[in-house]
Design brief:
Elements lengths: L10 H7 E5 L4 E6 L10 H17 L3 E6 L10 H4 L4 H24 L4 E5 L2 E3 L1 H8 L2 E5 L3 E3 L13 H9 L1 H10 L3 E2 H7 L4 E3 L4 H13 L3 H13 L5 H17 L1 H12 L13
Parallel strand pairs: 2-3, 3-4, 4-6, 5-7, 6-9
Antiparallel strand pairs: 1-2, 7-8
Helix pairs in contact: 1-2, 2-4, 5-6, 6-7, 10-11
Length: about 280
């Protein structure tokens, strides 16, 4: 049984903190709505992200677009909320927050639909975890990243200590986590923390276009590819080659594979959207 917390939000609070809109064409928009607070993650936001992830899973969406309202994508945990508790109550509260947040990240990672994140302004703490969880992370040219955890005596969450070494390398990851130095947009792109940098005024349109392009793709093949890349970080080469072979054979025999090859031979664009996504 998970521990209870003294600060339990109502369902309406979670819905107000995180918006989810699933369109008929299979594109899901997940929006952090606490722009006035830098989209800091409180318990309501963590539970809102989990509800959004589960909604995307149930609807078998084709792509997810993650954004944050206001000047900053996400500044990390809501320290004002955390400071209202002490001792065992605080520990239980943080377990509740991270339980929901981590379940959301696990759910987004498990579905076939790729995720695009558009990040701007300050991205700190768990905000880095959200940005890193996306398959394509587009950054505005005004963005700055800082781990921030150890500056307040905390340790990482939101998969940050797992994602950072894989994205930027262990040495650079540890440096970022221990020194909490600010990493500007250009450096973030150079070290692999984000996919690419775009002018601030073009971020929304670029993210929208990228998500819509992925929505038209082979969702099941995307899911298999994402999982192969993730498992390849830890699997030995021999096992991974076997996994690739099995996955390729299954993909070739699938409706997506048949449509893709037929379109290639017919010299036309494939229409993967007519093939239902898997729930």
């Amino acid at each position: 049984m998970r521990p209870t917390t003294g600060l339990s939000p109502r369902p309406a609070d979670s819905a107000a903190s995180v918006g989810v809109e699933i369109q008929d064409d299979g594109l899901a928009r997940v929006t952090l709505r606490r722009g006035h607070a830098g989209n800091a993650i409180d318990l309501a936001t963590a539970r809102g992200l989990l509800a959004a992830a589960r909604a995307c899973e149930r609807a078998a969406v084709r792509a997810v677009l993650l954004t944050g309202e206001g000047k900053s994508f996400c500044v990390g945990g809501d320290l004002r909320e955390f400071s209202r508790l002490t001792g065992e109550a605080l520990e239980k509260h943080l377990v509740a927050v991270t339980d929901a947040l981590h379940d959301a990240l696990r759910t987004f990672a498990s579905i076939d639909a790729p995720m695009v994140a558009a990040v701007q302004g300050a991205v700190a703490g768990a905000g880095i975890g959200l940005a890193a969880a996306a398959d394509v992370t587009l950054a505005a040219d005004d963005v700055t990243f800082t781990a921030a955890y150890t500056s307040i005596g905390y340790s990482p969450d939101a998969g940050v200590s797992w994602q950072l070494p894989r994205l930027v390398g262990p040495k650079r990851a540890v440096e970022m986590l221990l020194t909490n130095r600010r990493v500007p947009a250009a450096e973030a792109a150079t070290i692999g923390l984000v996919s690419r940098v775009v002018p601030s005024g073009e971020l929304a349109a670029e993210a929208e276009g990228t998500a819509r392009a992925l929505r038209r793709g082979p969702t099941s093949a995307f899911g298999v590819t994402r999982r192969l890349v993730a498992s390849g970080q830890t699997a030995d080469l021999a096992r991974h080659l076997d996994d690739e072979a099995a996955a390729l054979a299954a993909a070739a025999a699938s409706d997506e594979g048949r449509e893709g090859v037929a379109a290639f031979l017919d010299k036309r664009a494939p229409d993967f959207t007519r093939i239902p996504s898997r729930p």
